[in-house]
Amino acid sequence: MHPASPDNANDPVRIFAIDDDSGVRDALACLFKAADYRFTGFASAEAFLNQEVQTPRGCLVLDVELPGMSGLELQKLLRNQRAHRLPTIFISSGNSDYVERAFKGGASGFFHKPFAPEDLLRCVERLV
Q: Which segments constitute the Response regulatory domain (predicted)?
C-alpha cells in the first residue's frame, strides 16, 4: 500500500507509464494495480502528450528509447512546462550516458531492464 500525503490524501495516486513494449506496459499495470495505484500506460510520448493528464499525486515511469520522441526529449519538454510536477523514473536497456542525462534532467530514479519490480515499486512509494 502506498502512503497518504496529508495535503491531498483523498486524491488518487496515478502512475503513468510510457513504453513501446506492450509486455512491459502490461507487467507495470499488474504491478501498480496490485499496489492499489491507478495506472495508465502509453505506447509513445506523443500518445501521452495527447491526453490531458492532471493529477496532483503521481509518478511518470518512462522508457528512454521510444519511437518518435525519446523519453529524454519528453522529460525536457515536460520540465519546461510549469504545470508538470510528476516525478519521473526511467526504465531502459540504455547505456550509462542515458543515466547521466536523465538525472541531469531531474529524474528521480533510473532502472536498467530487466529490473526487480519490487525495487521500482519502492522507488515510486518513496516519491508519491
A: 14-128
| Contacts for 81-86: CB closer than 8 Å, 24+ residues apart | 85/56, 86/16, 86/53, 86/55, 86/58, 86/59, 86/60
Looking up cell 518512462 gives 62
Give the amino acid at 98: Y
Residue 14 confidence class, pLDDT cut points 50, 70, 90? very high
One-letter amino acid for residue 20 of the chain: D
Contact assessment for residue 63 and residue 41, using Cβ atoms and an 8 Å cutoff: no
Q: Does the pLDDT of residue 81 top 60, yes or no?
A: yes
Q: What residue type is 101 in one-letter code?
A: R
Number of continuous H segments (helices) and E segments (strands) in the chain: 5, 5
- Sign of torsion over alpha carbons 34, 35, 40, 41: negative
Mean pLDDT, to the nearest integer, of 31-45? Answer: 96
